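Entry for the shared binder. Reason: the reviewer on the internal report wants the predicted structure included alongside the sequence.
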Amino acid sequence: MHRALSWLGRAEQLAREQDVDGQVIYLWIAFNSAYAADIDDRVHLSEQGAFRTFIQALLTLDANRRRLDGLVWQEFSGSIRLLLDNHYVFQDFWAFHSGAISEASWKRSFEESKAAAQKALADRNTEKVLSIVLSRIYILRNQMVHGGATWRGRVNRAQTRDAAALLAKLVPLIIAIMMDNPQKVWAPPAYPVVE
């Protein structure tokens, strides 16, 4: 919690400075601080798989209050819908541009992903919606952290603003759910404090 709160605090400072690039990065670090754990090498869970498992656990803990459900349905008309419709945060779009797949393939994949999101919305499947949206934000995070974007660049503003808007609401809610459930035993943190 201490780590997540420290990064959330910095993200909030960057929001006041209107640095959405830095805000997305620090909000993702806060999210990562909350869910990341030392993963057994034999399991080989992907990072996206790990945060899906984490979201499932949070939804279970929040079943009575349904705050995550409320956030998804409240935000759908805003940042969530915009992120789902934005091909710049869709991995197959970039796979096409690097020559790995055809244009038809990435477009078909994008439409299938949007249809899966629409079905999840129709079914009120918060877990699926959050998984899809977080996978989109993860692509943006990769672009930024791996040097595939320019700080305050003009070409990635919409998805950066939308990701920052959603994460600024989601991360504090995740931390609140975790703090409201001190009885929950989480996996040991990656990189534990060593003196």
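Summary line for the report: The chain has one domain: 2-37+46-179.
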